[in-house]
TrEMBL record:
GO terms for biological process: lipid metabolic process. It comes from the Bacteria. It comes from Saccharothrix australiensis. Residues 75-207 form the Fungal lipase-type domain. Pfam families: Lipase_3. This is Lipase (Class 3).
Amino acid sequence: MSAPTLNHLASGYDARQAYCLAKAAELAYGDRDEIEVTAGEWGFDRVRHHCSTFKPPFAISHTQAYTMASPTMVVTAFRGTEPLRLRDWFSDVTIPPWPGPAGTGLVHYGFAEALRAVIPSVVAAVQELRDGEQTVWFTGHSLGGALAMLAAAWLHFEEPRLSAHGVYTFGQPRTCNNVLVKAYDRALAGRTFRVVNNNDVVAQVPPGPLFRHVAALRYIDSSGKVRDSMPRVSKLLDRAKGMTADLFAPAADGVRDHLMKAYVAALEKNLT
């Protein structure tokens, strides 16, 4: 992997920061040795790993993440999971959502369980590694995006002195109800960016209106351009264009668009 140049003081949406944190989210799919070697190449000399089990509907699952620290920033990246596994979680509507951080709003049961399994380890690592004035960042793809957003919410509402400087998520599913969304958007406005690639199927689940997305969308259109806004009709037409790009497998477009490598490739193109 080429070494991304993370900016510990980046503010607002920054194309290079988005690409660099996408690379960090992609690295979360690697093994421990790969993570530690790559983090070292990027200038992060300390790494802590997080792995815990939890039981969402139907099967035992794992929450996996890592936290890396440099003299200027601390980054936690959460690993995602397969779209089919997330679909299984969302198919059981009999399990009620759980209270959000500090009792704020409601969170989908599966995401709440995944976060609860790992948040003590993440908070301990951030507290340990933030031994100066480092900025704190969260990132993740798929399930990892939901957990990055929820971890930032948890720190802000439960440990406000560790409030995140920035949060970038990729292919994040709808995670919580409108109460938590509004509180989150007020608290972390200008610091959270939810990047969605065209027809990414995971960004369209679980269904509303109970579960909502946080704001600050950055939409990657069918040509690979990152847009900060797009009229609804234009967006629908663009999604249709993306869906018909492969005439032999139009239904697979939502899965292809969800792949982390698709996000990294598109964000790298937008650096110029």
